């Protein structure tokens, strides 16, 4: 789909009032938009802390790191599996029902999990409830992007909104795990779970404002749209590229810990990953300054290329301390890749399935990260502690290769069908 030209472009190519810092000011000017953004930040906190909170809690009450790691993985996997279902409900019936379910079910499941831990319940039963704890968290990032899409439409401000959401994701993932570790260590092993319940409930209730109807109401008559990514080569390319990136992230995280531990400085692993996140926040802010009129798929290809170059460069680090500067640049490619992914999905799917489509993208990334963590662990244990970065370097070209192949095939098909190939 080609993108609508900006008003400034129609008027004769003057400066775009929705680009640069002016775009952020315009987006967050109205009070209700600022409130929506803050509500989204609060509501997505459980996404970042529940895995770590389950890890600390189960380990404290079972005494087993193996059981704790397994339970934490179950919680994260449950989030990935259930998020497309939440997205479909939100697209077809509005976000209100999904948010009410999350606001009620998550604190109830957290309370039940804490009780089972105190009662020393069998590990199998604890794991069943852990699945419910992770599966009761709504995909707030997808919900927020759908809200902005419903409010802004295909305007240059939408890219600014996607940039803002990417920054929010990174901020939560930077401070969330640290907060979970802090309260679990200083207050109680269950404190992180309690925080997840409190933030999740408060954020979901806050987001209920304006969620009484679907973001984009489905048509009153005619066939109901469904998310069928296999009908679009570009969507398939986006999903596969994001899966490759998820594997890269999973391998990287394990290898950072493995390498820093091997030199007797495991404490700097968190600082290295924080450097990645600082770069990612910076990249998201700068992406918001890029004119929104640039075709979405072109941005996707360029951001995939940048990601491949800088993540491949991690294998050149002579020691873990070099991961700080290289990781800063590698991290700066994360949010541009995410933002361009969101824009391609926005342009490629019906508005009535947009939330579900974004939830599927997230599920591909999270599921692939789990697989990447397994690969990283196997490789780093069998070889040198930094062997995983060789895997990262080998996989880093995959996203741009997939993006180019999908884009070339799409253009070729459009030419064969006699359709225009410009735009996004």
Structural features, described:
There is one protein chain. The radius of gyration is 21 Å and the shape is globular. The model is unreliable at 1-15, 218-223 and 414-424 (pLDDT under 50). By secondary structure, the chain is mostly helical. The protein has two domains: 31-216, Growth Hormone, Chain: A (Up-down Bundle), CATH 1.20.1250; 225-424, Growth Hormone, Chain: A (Up-down Bundle). The chain has 18 helices and no strands.
Gross morphology is: globular
Please report the first level of CATH classification, the CATH class of the largest domain: Mainly Alpha
Give me the CATH fold name of the largest domain.
Growth Hormone, Chain: A
Beta-strand proportion: under 5%
The end-to-end span amounts to 6 Å
């Amino acid at each position: 789909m080609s993108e609508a030209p900006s008003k400034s472009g129609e008027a004769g190519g003057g400066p775009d009032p929705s680009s640069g810092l002016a775009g952020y000011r315009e987006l967050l000017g109205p009070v209700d938009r600022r409130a929506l953004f803050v509500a989204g930040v609060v509501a997505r906190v459980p996404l970042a802390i529940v895995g770590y909170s389950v890890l600390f809690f189960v380990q404290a009450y079972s005494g087993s790191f193996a059981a704790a790691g397994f339970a934490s993985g179950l919680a994260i996997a449950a989030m990935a599996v259930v998020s497309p279902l939440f997205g479909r409900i939100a697209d077809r019936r509005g976000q209100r029902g999904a948010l009410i379910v999350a606001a009620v079910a998550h604190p109830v499941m957290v309370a039940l999990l804490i009780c089972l831990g105190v009662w020393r319940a069998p590990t199998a039963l604890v794991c069943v409830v852990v699945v419910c704890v992770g599966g009761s968290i709504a995909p707030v990032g997808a919900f927020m992007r759908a809200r902005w899409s419903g409010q802004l439409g295909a305007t240059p401000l939408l890219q600014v909104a996607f940039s803002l959401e990417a920054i929010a994701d990174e901020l939560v993932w930077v401070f969330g795990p640290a907060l979970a570790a802090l309260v679990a260590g200083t207050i109680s092993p269950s404190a992180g779970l309690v925080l997840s319940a409190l933030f999740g409930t408060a954020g979901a209730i806050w987001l209920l404002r304006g969620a009484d109807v679907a973001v984009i109401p489905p048509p009153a008559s005619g066939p109901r749209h469904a998310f069928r990514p296999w009908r679009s080569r570009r969507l398939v390319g986006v999903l596969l590229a994001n899966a490759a990136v998820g594997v890269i992230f999973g391998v990287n995280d394990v290898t950072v810990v493995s390498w820093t531990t091997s030199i007797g400085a495991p404490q700097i692993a968190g600082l290295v990953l924080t450097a990645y996140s600082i770069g990612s926040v910076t990249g998201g802010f700068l992406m918001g300054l890029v004119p929104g009129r640039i075709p979405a798929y072109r941005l996707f290809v360029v951001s995939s290329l940048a990601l491949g170059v800088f993540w491949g460069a991690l294998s050149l680090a002579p020691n873990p301390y070099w991961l700080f500067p290289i990781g800063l640049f590698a991290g700066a490619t994360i949010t541009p890749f995410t933002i361009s992914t969101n824009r391609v999905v926005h342009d490629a799917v019906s508005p009535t399935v947009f939330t579900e489509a974004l939830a599927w993208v997230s599920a591909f990334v999270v599921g692939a990260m789990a697989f990447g963590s397994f690969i990283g662990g196997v490789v780093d244990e069998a070889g040198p502690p930094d062997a995983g970065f060789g895997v990262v370097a080998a996989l880093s070209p995959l996203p741009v290769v997939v993006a180019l192949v999908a884009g070339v095939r799409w253009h070729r098909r459009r030419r064969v069908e006699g359709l225009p190939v410009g735009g996004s």
